Task: inverse folding
């Protein structure tokens, strides 16, 4: 039966078979190189098999190369360190003063599987949540409170953010309010008020 089949494919069939074998041999080194996934020290990989997460724990460097050879599996790389720059956000304070706040949020993904499975884009969602949390916390404080101490609102932002991103596998390492800008008219008013207070003390 096999001999009859081989005789029935004809000359064109043999040419196509030989060309396919030749193509496989030529592209074999390239395909093997494409199957190798190199995971860096600061990255974590989540392995999917037919759309399902293969393991409840993310793979680290040197643990995931064998998975890329088996089909069908997808490997999603995730950077566990997240630094969000909240540059010059306009915030309306409690005493109706519009300020511009420059802040930085440092986060770390402690569970890459939760970060991939529970939210579509963890970096984008974290950035939007950080903006909203910063506005809501600083909006409950006056300008004098913000200028007097930035540690208290930073700790409040960190506590709210941690409670909101716990099921995302995120953990806030540090919140920093780097700089605060106020309008020039408000700066002149504050300077005049301070000058008047100094004159009153001098008298």
Result:
């Amino acid at each position: 039966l096999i001999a009859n089949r081989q005789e029935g494919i004809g000359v064109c069939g043999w040419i196509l078979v030989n060309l396919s074998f030749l193509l496989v041999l030529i592209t074999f080194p390239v395909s093997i190189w494409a199957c190798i996934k190199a995971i860096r020290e600061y990255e974590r990989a989540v392995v999917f098999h037919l759309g399902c997460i293969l393991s409840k724990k993310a793979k680290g460097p040197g643990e995931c190369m064998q998975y890329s050879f088996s089909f069908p599996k997808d490997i999603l790389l995730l950077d566990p360190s997240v630094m969000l720059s909240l540059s010059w956000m306009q915030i309306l304070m409690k005493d109706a003063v519009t300020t511009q706040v420059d802040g930085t949020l440092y986060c770390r993904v402690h569970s890459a599987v939760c970060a991939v499975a529970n939210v579509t884009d963890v970096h984008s969602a974290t950035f939007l949540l950080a903006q909203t949390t910063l506005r809501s916390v600083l909006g409950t404080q006056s300008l004098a409170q913000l200028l007097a101490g930035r540690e208290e609102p930073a700790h409040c932002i960190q506590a709210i953010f941690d409670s909101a991103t716990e099921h995302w596998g995120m953990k806030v390492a540090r919140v920093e309010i780097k700089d605060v800008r106020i309008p020039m008219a408000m700066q002149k008013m504050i300077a005049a008020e301070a000058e008047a207070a100094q004159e009153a003390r001098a008298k």
In short: The chain has seven helices and six strands. The domain at 79-196 is CATH 3.30.479.30 (Tetrahydropterin Synthase; Chain A). Residues 10-35 form the longest helix (26 residues).
